[in-house]
Amino acid sequence: MLRLLTDRRLLLSAVVIGSLIAVALWPRAVVVDLAAVSRGPLVVTIDEEGRTRVRDRFVVTAPVTGRILRIELEPGDRVTRGEVIARIQPESPPLLDARTRAEAQAALESADASLGHARAEEQRVRATHDQAQRELARTRRLTAAGVTTTQDLDTREAEVVVTKEAVNAAAFAVRAASADVERARARLANSAPASVRTAVAVRAPVDGVVLQRLRESESVVPAGEPLVEIGDPRQMEIVTDLLSTDAVRVRPGARATIEQWGGDTPLDAVVRRIEPAGFTKVSALGVEEQRVNVVLNFVDSGEESASLGDGYRVETAIVLWEAPNVLKVPTNALFREGTRWAVYVVSGGRARRTFVEIGHQTGQEAEVLEGLSERMTVIVHPGDLVRDGGRITTRSQG
Fold this sequence. Notes:
The chain is α+β, with helices and mostly antiparallel strands and 398 residues long. It folds into four domains: 26-41 and 325-394, conserved putative lor/sdh protein from methanococcus maripaludis s2 fold (Beta Barrel), CATH 2.40.420.20; 45-54 and 233-322, Beta Barrel (Elongation Factor Tu (Ef-tu), domain 3), CATH 2.40.30.170; 60-92 and 197-231, CATH 2.40.50.100; 98-191. Helix content is 30%, strand content 39%. It has a six-stranded antiparallel beta barrel with strand order 2-11-14-13-12-15. The chain has a four-stranded antiparallel β-sheet with strand order 3-10-8-5, with no helix packed on it. Strands 7-6-4-9 form a four-stranded antiparallel β-sheet, with no helix packed on it. Helix 2 (98-145) runs antiparallel to helix 3. The longest helix has 48 residues, at 98-145. The two termini are 49 Å apart.
């Protein structure tokens, strides 16, 4: 009797231990997150940082070498075309000493006298030429009447040709003498002290706003030195540099949106130009990249876009492709199975691996061409514990 009781206890212990082992080895349901396959709009964009800039900007430079007076205009001040924005006192050469100045004055007087002599000579030869022409006309009439010979006519014609050439030579002599007078006068004029020299006014070429004041305090500047940058902030555009592999996919006229510009709503823009030449830019990771500038225009130049200034940072999203109603699935539900895309579809509390064909993709969603239908439920972020046919449970149920 005691032995029989012992055997029952051993059998009961074996059953309990076996049950515990079966429960421990029984496959548990994997906790997963789910998402639904749905229909809706899908927009594929290239997102990149951009900068605003005034489309037409004018850098006003110093027309002459000299001392520029202090520029009172501030960045943001509005100017009109022709308005004086700066004044430059032209640089004067060293003053002449008394002897050199006297020589220059004498040279001027001598040049004036030579000019007077040349003009008098010109008047004399012109009178001689006029007389020769009258004599020629008289001789022609006499020759026609048979009073004089043709030899006299030839002589008069030769005299007219000679006097005409003399008139031309006298005119050239007057021009040369006039140049000598101007040269002598300029030498005396340039020796005037700077206090009596006229300041050169630098004027605004267009209506606009002062974007930058490149020179402020009084100083000596060479000719061609940039002074002020002027532009019209109402004519604003956005420049973003894309990877060359992305730029070839963009077309002029493509729609774009401007985000993270400081306002509450995105701004509409359109691609105006893709520049034909690229450039090399080093990324934050130290990798050399070939970049291409893409220029965008604001669609509506309203109050919101008008609040942007020159050189402001924005985020651009250029649309490459869009459709109003496509079947789509979250991209975090996709995984590679060999060379094909696949997802785990939930069916009867179990995960079923399903191969799919994918079209256009964004960072969050992908277009489904084949393999899924609307309202199907798929597993997002499937981990290594998820297996085809394995039991699953959602986090909300777990």
